[in-house]
Design goal:
9 helices
Length: about 325
């Protein structure tokens, strides 16, 4: 009986000793709930107060009719997210109060990693926003500068001879390229700030590929310019626009394949396709000139035959 009584008292003492821990855990949960509700209300009411729906409508994210409903749904989602984040922050002390360090330690480590990551994420976001802003400004600056220099008059040299508005406009194209390159640079820097191996690998690959893209664009532009210039020269010198167009498109095709080769796009396939196209063009020329010159060749053969027959008669 004494053993049973001792065991009962031991269990009872354990329960009594655990009650303060349980009360502490409950108090932490209540505190977490109060703070979570306050944070949620601040976010929800704050976003509504600053006119979040108007901002969504202004940015074109939602239509005027659906802006309020979509913004309310997004605001509610953000509020719930903040609510659960606050609860997660309070989980380690709750489990510590219950002497469950095996559960609280992993959560604490995870939260420490997340909290250490948030500043880097903030800096990366600032870099991206700053980069996009600078890219937009510098892109417009380059575009306006080229327009002031009347660079659009050279548009015909980088198009297929079409001077319509649907062709490539040099100022806009160069400005867009400048903006994209600057934006990419800042995005890569933002990825490196995050200090994640995957993003670092992606950023390094992008930086290494940018020179190839620039050189490929230069090759392609030179191909278009050279093709159009050569076409103009041949057309003016020979008076045959067809030959000029053929020369232009041949140069453009060569430039396109050189561009793909520079970008390392399946080089063996690109080279093989280039050889096939050259062979097809050569065969097409041979067939077209063969069929087109058949009458001429027939006349020449008849003349040669008549000449041979006359010589034979003279010898007889």
């Amino acid at each position: 009986m004494n053993n049973i009584g001792d065991q009962f008292m031991s269990v009872l003492n354990s329960i009594i000793d655990f009650i303060p821990n349980l009360i502490s855990a409950i108090l932490f949960l209540i505190l977490a709930w109060i703070i979570a509700v306050i944070v949620k209300n601040i976010i929800v009411k704050g976003l509504k107060a600053i006119g979040f729906d108007k901002w969504l409508e202004k940015k074109g994210v939602s239509s005027p009719d659906e802006a309020q409903r979509e913004s309310e749904g997004l605001i509610a989602t953000l509020g719930k997210l903040a609510y659960f984040l606050v609860f997660i922050l309070f989980l380690p002390p709750v489990f510590d109060a219950l002497n469950m360090q095996s559960v609280s330690d992993p959560i604490r480590e995870m939260m420490t990693a997340v909290l250490n990551f948030i500043p880097r994420l903030f800096v990366a976001g600032v870099l991206v926003l700053l980069g996009l802003y600078l890219a937009k400004i510098l892109g417009k600056l380059v575009t306006n500068l080229l327009k002031s220099l009347n660079a659009s008059k050279f548009n015909s040299y980088v198009n297929f001879g079409d001077k319509s508005k649907e062709g490539i406009d040099i100022p806009n194209a160069v400005g867009w390229i400048v903006a994209v390159l600057i934006g990419l640079f800042f995005v890569v820097q933002a990825l490196s700030v995050l200090n994640l191996e995957v993003f670092n690998t992606i950023g390094t690959a992008i930086i290494a590929y940018i020179p190839l893209v620039i050189s490929a664009l230069i090759i392609l532009a030179l191909g278009f310019i050279g093709g159009n210039l050569l076409s103009t020269v041949i057309t003016k010198s020979t008076g045959n626009a067809f030959v000029g167009e053929i020369a232009k498109y041949l140069i453009i095709i060569v430039a396109v394949f050189m561009t793909l080769d520079q970008l390392n796009f399946a080089q063996s396939i690109v080279n093989l396709a280039f050889l096939f196209i050259l062979g097809a063009v050569a065969i097409a020329f041979a067939i077209s000139f063969g069929i087109g010159g058949r009458t001429f060749a027939e006349k020449q053969l008849h003349k040669f035959e008549d000449k041979v027959q006359k010589e034979d008669r003279g010898n007889q």
